[in-house]
């Protein structure tokens, strides 16, 4: 190892370029830095699991060049992770590669999106095949791609949920779902949860309930119930007590009749908050009594991510009236969907409802391939097995590091909340940035969220292995010990 490190240092630029074409450049390069650090401090630095793959040589613009252009030509509202933003140029299953060929373990999955793994060959092939056959025609003509995928998606749904509308994003899916609920019930009032994120267009920004994601524009017709947050909520894990607030909102905040209730089974942007157990069944009853529809937003928790079930809402045993989805549906292809019953879907025949790209053959071909990969590769089972193992290891880390206030979630949608005082639950907002930066230096990328920005969001591709889980936890452990 030592010998290798020395000879690697001697490589000239030209040789270095040649070397980059060799297998596992990034892995060996990291071993070198690990060995050096280990020598200095005597602390063992975690090492990326082996992965027999080398990305092609990158000869595009550098991170600095891209950043300069981005600053000049793109919206100033766009932000990046890390002090020195990463230029990610290649992806392969659960790994990402930067411009120098350095490999990173992807613990965020493009924000809970790349469920099958980066550039999964089957999904790529489906996209190529459809693109070279017919890229776009609109739904004004027949094409089998949209119909085949709709039928396959409907087969994954419980009850009478079998009519699919395709959209281009999660926001658009939730906008449509809320409009359908309003049309069907003839009511305007929708109940959402505090700390929710449902999108950023006119209606969905109303349903989103975190001030840092809401602009000061008209957002009416949404009431926000107390969040059934087991860690920070006043009733802890008692879902039934939180459910009473929905009943109260209906009685005291509306005419007694509502259009619906929208929820994420596990709040993603809000910091991986799983709704307290036994919350949804009583809420479902209150909403039904008030004539409303129940909308499950499965944008983050759907497509096998929770491991125990294909959809997040199934973990609390209810069947919603409308289910919305995006992100994982296309493994990174822009695609969303709303699924509901034939009776409810009928309201859209009152006028024309159409969008140019929804149900595009390339996107639906990708979506269909995703379903097949999840099934064939047992990704739900893997999310359950590896996710449970990862959660166990993260929970054990809590005994070692006082900064960990809570470990939560299920399957491969996990959260680690950092606090500077466990009793007061003071958000560790600056410390999380430092740890995240150190983890990145070790080769692990994780997400961050929660209203106070103090929660690690771990939502990797569902092909994550136990070795990957060990590496992620070891890197977090190491980074926390260096605080
Ligand atoms: C639960 C949930 N719903 C809806 C959305 C909006 O999806 P999109 O960004 O595709 O519009 C998001 C995005 O993060 C989300 O997490």
TrEMBL record:
The keyword Transferase is annotated on this UniProt entry: yes
Enzyme kind, highest EC tier: transferase
Cofactor: pyridoxal 5'-phosphate
Enzyme Commission (EC) number: 2.6.1.44
Signal peptide region: none
Keywords: Aminotransferase, Photorespiration, Pyridoxal phosphate, Transferase
Listed Gene3D superfamilies: Aspartate Aminotransferase, domain 1, Type I PLP-dependent aspartate aminotransferase-like (Major domain)
A GO cellular component entry from the record: mitochondrion
Pfam families: Aminotran_3
InterPro entries per the UniProt record, alphabetical: Aminotrans_3, Aminotrans_3_PPA_site, PyrdxlP-dep_Trfase, PyrdxlP-dep_Trfase_major, PyrdxlP-dep_Trfase_small
Reactions the enzyme catalyzes: glyoxylate + L-alanine = glycine + pyruvate
GO molecular function, one term: pyridoxal phosphate binding
Gene Ontology terms: biological process: photorespiration
SUPFAM superfamilies for the chain: PLP-dependent transferases
Record keyword Transferase present: yes
Protein family per UniProt: Belongs to the class-III pyridoxal-phosphate-dependent aminotransferase family.
Protein name per Swiss-Prot or TrEMBL: alanine--glyoxylate transaminase
Classification of source organism: Eukaryota, Viridiplantae, Streptophyta, Embryophyta, Tracheophyta
